[in-house]
Design a protein that fits this description.
- This protein is an alpha+beta fold.
- It folds into three domains: about 70 residues, no CATH class; about 100 residues, Orthogonal Bundle (DNA polymerase, domain 1); about 160 residues, Orthogonal Bundle (hpI Integrase, Chain A), CATH 1.10.443.10.
- About 50% of the residues lie in helices and about 10% in strands.
- A four-stranded antiparallel beta sheet has the order 2-1-3-4, with helices on one face. Strands 5-6-7 form a three-stranded antiparallel beta sheet, with no helix packed on it.
- A hairpin with a 5-residue loop joins strand 6 and strand 7.
- The protein is elongated and about 110 Å long.
- One of its GO terms (biological process) is DNA integration.
Length: about 375
């Protein structure tokens, strides 16, 4: 290990001070470069080729310094972001409901630009360029992505760095922390009015794909998320006692009661399941777990004359909004029925409770005015 003279003609190596190549007899006064070899902690060799002896000595000192840092201070060599991502996404599949969204954002917005870089070579300007690029093109109208989408991408990069730090895959600085998140003011709480609800229910009654229609009705009567319904298995349903078990990625069950109408939907789904022994309550035509419901929902939505912008997730908002405005359900109960992890997520429906309270307060006017 050390510095050697390399003959540029035959690529052989020689000790410093050698004047003539012992292999091809070429003069090493002109036909030479310098080869630097340093042994790493894992026994491998790091090799660099430079033009001058002065530069070779500087490179050798730098490489030896890096080895000493890792040996004495425990400093690790920075991994490639793509390598850490592979570990992260495998973890996310077991621990995050939204891992598919993470995967899409990584492949679409992150990997093509910084995935092949080492984590210590990525700086805030690299990340800002990704966000700026998202401003220029893409999105639904190709006029740039919404602020919320950009924020999701920034949060993903930040999360990967934090995760790597927690597991000591990489303990350097997190460049995403220095980027100011885009301002987001696009929280959407979709809710069908009574006329739209009536048209939807009438459409579902005569819809030819009855299992698909039942899936939509079940969402409306329970407020469950689309993925929760598509992944629902018969073993998770207690028809006798009217309960259902939902599982988050960590395997912690949330047991919730079913209304009589929701139970009726379950009974109907059981009658038309594709074959005996089918695992899923609302499977596709082959009895397998659905991976998408977008096309079916689009047809149902259009047939019912609902707004084209109304998403399937709006059924969950509709469920929550009508319960909140009924005056019979408080926010805590609504939080549990929606399986929200925190009350802040349910807070968007609080104004509906305020209207109910106002109507309740108005009852006093009627009571006392009747006494006059």
């Amino acid at each position: 290990m050390g510095i050697y003279i390399r003959c540029t003609k035959c690529k052989s190596d020689h000790k410093l001070g050698c004047k003539v190549c012992k292999k091809c007899t070429a003069s090493l006064a002109t036909n030479k470069k310098y080869k630097v070899v340093v042994k790493t902690l894992d026994g491998k060799r790091t090799v660099r080729h430079v033009d001058t002896l002065n530069l070779a000595r500087r490179v050798e000192n730098s490489l030896k310094g890096q080895v000493a840092e890792r040996k004495i201070l425990g400093v690790k060599k920075a991994p490639y972001l793509s390598d850490v991502w592979s570990l992260f996404i495998n973890w996310a599949k077991k621990n995050k409901k939204s891992w598919k969204d993470d995967l899409f954002r990584w492949e679409k917005h992150v990997a093509p630009y910084i995935g092949d870089k080492k984590m210590d070579a990525i700086n805030p300007s690299d990340i800002q360029k990704i966000l700026d690029r998202m401003d220029e093109t893409g999105g639904k109208s190709n006029n740039g992505y919404a602020p919320a989408t950009k924020k999701h991408v920034l949060v993903l990069i930040k999360r990967v760095y934090n995760w790597a730090d927690q597991l000591e895959h990489y303990t350097g600085s997190n460049p995403a922390k220095k980027i100011k998140p885009p301002r987001v003011q696009n929280q959407v709480t979709e809710c069908l009015n009574k006329g739209e609800l009536e048209r939807l229910l009438n459409t579902l009654e005569v819809w030819p794909n009855q299992l698909g229609a039942l899936l939509v009705k079940f969402s409306l009567y329970t407020g469950f998320r689309q993925d929760e319904i598509m992944g629902l298995e018969w073993k998770d349903v207690d028809q006798e006692n009217g309960f259902i078990s939902l599982f988050d990625p960590k395997g912690k069950p949330a047991t919730l009661p079913l209304s009589q109408e929701a139970l009726k939907i379950i009974h109907e789904a059981e009658k038309i399941k594709p074959f005996e022994g089918c695992l899923y309550v609302f499977p596709n035509q082959f009895g397998e777990r659905r991976v998408s419901f977008y096309k079916i929902w689009s047809r149902i939505r259009n047939a019912a004359g609902l707004p084209k912008t109304f998403r399937f997730h709006g059924l969950r908002h509709t469920f929550a909004s009508y319960l909140a405005s009924s005056g019979e359900v408080d926010l805590y109960t609504l939080q549990k029925l929606l399986n929200h992890q925190s009350p802040q997520m349910t807070q968007r429906y609080a104004h509906l409770l305020d209207e109910t309270l106002r109507r309740g307060a108005g009852v006093a006017d009627k009571v006392f005015n009747n006494l006059k």
